[in-house]
Amino acid sequence: MLNPFVKNRNYLIIYLAVWATLMLIQTAILNYYQELSFSASINDAVVFNGLLALIGFNIWYVLRFNMKDQQSSFDLIVNHMLVGIVTIAIWLASGYFLMQALEPSNEVYLAFLQESLPWRAIIGAFFYLIFILIYYMMLYYEDLQQKMRVETELNGLVREAELSALKSQINPHFLFNSLNSISSLTMSSPEKAQEMVIKLSDFLRYSLSHDRNETTSLKKELENIERYLDIEKVRFGHRLKYEKNVPEACLQAEIPNMILQPLFENAIKHGVYHSTEEVLIEMRCMPNDQFIELHIQNDFDPEAAKPKGEGIGLKNIRNRLQLIYQRADLLEIKREKISFEVVLRIPLQKSKKH
Amino acid sequence: MKVALRTLIIEDEAPARMLLQRFLSDHEAIDIIGEFSDGFSGLKGIQENKPDLVILDIQMPKLTGFELLELLDDDLPEIIFTTTYDQYAIKAFEMNAVDYLLKPFSRKGCIKLLIRFWSVSNTKP
Fold first, then answer.
1. Which domain holds residue B84?
2. Is the pTM for the entire model greater than 0.90?
3. Min Cα separation B50/chain A (Å)
4. What is the CATH number of the domain that holds B10?
5. N vs C: which end of chain A shows fewer Cβ within 10 Å?
């Protein structure tokens, strides 16, 4: 892993600026308070701070190396103390000899240099500490950001998975029964059989392709519903009757795809399945400024066993609407004596949040 | 000479009924004596006709195939259930149905099942 000062240009500029400032301050102090010559002051400041900047830069790699194998905190502290002592010793020695070479005849300065070594050691230790603290903070921060990135990504994936799990699956009973009807039609009316094969294919294609997209127009969704009902009509004959009252204004509204299909499947299951008489499934749409309101109503035989509570289909629709629109009040169920009605309110603004 | 099985078809979907009818009607082993499209009329049909064999749909209005069987406590005919899914098969066996036909029906499957019934019923004293 690269040193963060190399990876990020801004960091590098700040790093260099800090050291330049320190050099200036040190030059001023040495020249003004210690009354050293200007050249000695500036040389001292540049050499010692420059070396420290160089060493500090490389502490990063020592730190990364130390982190490679899991150590106890005791080992880590001992490690850092050893590295610190060695680092400071190298720093002082190289600074000391460089300054001796740069200012060989400046007696005053050389005496000062000698005297200041213990202080410099303490300052070095202090800098070393600051370095590792800054580096650890940077690592921690980067780690945190990485974790946050992963978390947002995961949240997105979870939401997607939830949505796809809630999407209605094709009922295998429907498929087998339709195939049986087709088989029968091949003998009595081959053309109708052919028609039904096409309808079934279109229905399957729609259901499969719309796994990907979250919403579709009401128009397309209704076309698919009508395909579905046409197929079921072959099975149930006169028992299944469908009427719709959907004004033009509703048709272009975006609704979650395959959200109506389970409702019609329920209407057939609880209405048509249990009745020998004609059962009317009625679809109405009422648009207003904020919503389109979809009503799906069917009669049912009051003597047939009542389904207990809210079925999985309705629950899934409720959860799906909640996930897409962040609202819990979009599905309403009205159970009367001989009729069952589901009201869906689909918000008109495009809520394709991800 | 072997006697044909007197058979009722109880099935709510017209296309499925027609399919069974076509597959079975011209076979010597079977004599279709009636067709019914819901549980109630089917029950009545069984009680009145006392058939040898009933081909019975499970999912039907008014009475399901299972409920119908529960109401027929004495003098049970042989039963072949029809269903789309073998999830019902275990229950079908618990209810002493001898066998079941899966939808979509195949002519071969229907005939094979039938012949087996026919030979069993003809070996009975």
1. 5-119
2. no
3. 24
4. 3.40.50.2300
5. C
Asked if residue B125 belongs to a domain, the reply is no
- For residue A306, pLDDT over 80 is answered with no
Coil/strand/helix, residue B73: coil
Share of chain A above pLDDT 90, in %: 47
Distance (Å, whole) CA B47 – CA A280:
33
Look up tokens 């921060």; give the residue. Answer: A141
Cα B73 to Cα A89: distance, rounded to the nearest angstrom: 102
Verify whether the Cβ–Cβ distance B22 to A237 is below 8 Å: no
Residue-wise pLDDT for A223-265, tens only, equals: 999 999 999 999 999 999 999 999 999 999 999 988 999 999 9
Count of domains in chain B? Answer: 1
* pLDDT at res. B88: 64
Phi and psi at residue B34, to the nearest 5°? 180, 155
d(CA A65, CA A263): 62
Residue A248 in tokens? 């033009």
CA distances from A261 to A209, A241, A292, A344 (A): 15, 16, 17, 13
pLDDT tens digit sequence for B29-62: 889 999 999 889 999 999 999 999 999 998 888 8
B63 found inside a domain: yes
Beta strands A291-299; A279-287: pairing state:
antiparallel
Interface of B with A (CB under 8 A): 12-16, 18-19, 22, 37-38, 59, 61-62, 84-85, 102-105
* E strand or H helix at A285: strand A279-287
Cis check for the bond before B125: say yes or no (omega within 30 of 0).
no
Q: Across all residues in chain A, what is the average pLDDT?
A: 87
Q: How far apart (Å, rounded) are the C-alpha atoms in residues A336 and A346?
A: 23
CA dist., res. B54 & res. B123, Å (int):
19
Q: What are the residues facing A307 on neighbouring strands?
A: none
Contact between B79 and B118 under an 8 Å Cβ cutoff? The reply is: no
Lay out the sheet containing B30-36: strands in order across.
B30-36, B5-10, B53-57, B78-83, B99-102
Domains of chain A: 4-161 (no CATH), 167-347 (3.30.565.10)
Token pair, residue B80, equals 């072949």
Give this complex's ipTM.
0.86
Asked if the Cβ–Cβ distance from A181 to B61 is below 8 Å, we say: no
